[in-house]
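Write out this protein's structure.
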Amino acid sequence: MVGVTVALGGLVAAAAAGQLSSAAGSASLGASLQESSDGAQVSLVYAVAASPGSCPTYGGVQEGTSLTFALFDYGTASFGPAAVLVNSTLYSGAYAQLSAGALGVYTISLGACAHPSGQTLLMAAADGKEVQFET
C-alpha cells in the first residue's frame, strides 16, 4: 500500500512539474516573440565598475564610482535609450542611439562605490521600449 501511494505521488509530482515547465516555456517564448516583433533585440555584452579611487574590493573585484557597460543590438531596428536605471535609481541624460547590428558603450557616474556584479540595469526608450539586464 505504501509503495502504491509513493508511486502515485511520484506520478502526480511529475505531471505537475511538466505543466510548470510548459507554462514557463510559453511565457519565455511569448516574451521572445514580443521583443523580436519590433525588431530591436538588445543584449548586454559586459559591465565594468571603473574609477576605483578609494573604493574597496568586493569578492576580489575592485569597486568603482562609475558603471561602464556595452550593449549589442542584434535585431533589425535601432534602440534609442532615453533613461537608464541602475538598481531603481534614475540616471537621465543624453544617450547615444544603438543602431541595429552595432555595439554601444555607455558610462554612468554612480556617485558612490559599486561593484559590477549584482546590478539591475534597465534602459527605457522614448517610444516605450525597455530592456533589462542583471549583471
